[in-house]
Amino acid sequence: MNILMIDTSGPACSVAVMKDGQIICELQLTSGKTHSQRVMPMVDQALTMCEMTVADIDLFGAVAGPGSFTGVRIGVSSVKALAHAAGEPCIGVDALEALAANVSGFDGLVCPILDARAQQVYGAMFESGMPPVRIMDDEAEKLTVYLERVKADGRDALFLGDGAAAFETVIREQLGDKAHFAPAHHAGLRAASACALAAEYAKDEANLKDCMTLLPLYLRAPQAERERAAKLAAQKENANG
């Protein structure tokens, strides 16, 4: 099976190609350009380097979230369009699980966290493996609440993801020598890890989607929707008062 994976859910834009169980290409770029400008040229470049075309791909994958609302939409929409054009299935991969898939052989908790702003994180907990063994469902919550969950487990914890870098000082203050941090080459979300996960889950056809049923994974409403809801609630309260 040939798999093309796209990730635009965070700061980096990345593309990976797997052929018959082997990652044969991975491109990743973090720059000032938007993901919408980068992703399709990177797909073209990856396929050209592999001497393949879209017609050679059997499964199209996207990191479906959680992450940047705009970034997630770009990746999912791109994969839906490619899958529709090729007439092939697609699959969504959880961003936190893909981060955890960077880790092998760690005897403790694997703690991927993404900076969700306002001292909140998108977080989960796993034990290392392929696929990673889930200990906690994805949550969007205050960093302090998440760290209390980790602390209550009692094991050493390996942090990775952009939230790990953003909150390293606070994490070390809360967990002391129980806190560990992945090195730079494993700390960020990689399309290759997401691609490996897609290959695992594609073994069960029930996990495959078509271009109409692949959806983003959001843990909370976009900021604009939250602000609108708060404004409407305030207007309703004032009207009732």
Task: Give an account of the 3D structure.
- The protein has 241 residues and is an alpha/beta fold.
- The strands form two sheets. It has a five-stranded mixed β-sheet with strand order 3-2-1-4-5, sandwiched between helices. Strands 8-7-6-9-10 form a five-stranded mixed β-sheet.
- Residues 223-227 have low confidence and may be disordered.
- It has nine helices and ten strands.
- It has helices at 35-49, 69-86, 95-100, 143-153, 162-166, 168-175, 184-187, 191-201, 223-240; strands at 2-7, 13-19, 22-29, 59-65, 90-94, 109-115, 120-127, 133-142, 157-160, 179-181.
- It has two domains: 2-94 and 190-225, Nucleotidyltransferase, domain 5, CATH 3.30.420.40; 103-187, Nucleotidyltransferase, domain 5 (2-Layer Sandwich).
- It is globular and about 50 Å long.
- Strand 7 (120-127) and strand 8 form a beta hairpin.
- Helix percent band: 25-40%
Shape: globular
Q: How many helices?
A: 9
| Order of H and E elements | EEEHEHEHEEEHEHHEHHH
Could you tell me how far the N terminus lies from the C terminus, measured between alpha carbons in angstroms?
63 Å
The level 1 CATH classification of the largest domain is: Alpha Beta
Describe the structure using short key phrases.
241 residues; alpha/beta; Nucleotidyltransferase, domain 5; 5-stranded mixed beta sheet; 9 helices; globular
